[in-house]
Amino acid sequence: MFVAMNRFKVFPAEAETFETIWRERDRHLDEVPGFVEFHLLKGPATDDHVLYASHTIWRSRADFEAWTKSDAFRKAHANAGSTKPIYAGHPQFEGFEAVLVEKKTREAA
Fold this sequence. Notes:
The protein is of the alpha+beta class. It has a single domain, classed as 2-Layer Sandwich (Alpha-Beta Plaits), CATH 3.30.70.100. Helix content is 22%, strand content 32%. It has helices at residues 15-24, 61-68, 71-76; strands spanning 2-10, 35-45, 50-58, 92-97. Strands 2-3-1-4 form a four-stranded antiparallel β-sheet.
């Protein structure tokens, strides 16, 4: 399993716009082999930004890398540029390979 994350520092006044962009965009992830799951996470807010992370789970690093070279990736990012600044800095990519995965096997009492 490979987890690909991008962290975004969004100006507080643009947080709703950022969320709307993500809700309404065509991600095309389900067109690519190895895609498992996507989450947009909202983190803590400070005076100058709200922290968000896009969190995508892939079957493998190779599947993620194939996605970044695919037509689906180009289509998903075709309108990524914004006409007004909403970010406090550039997104920061982080990639993680799973070394331990634990799943719930029974219901808690």
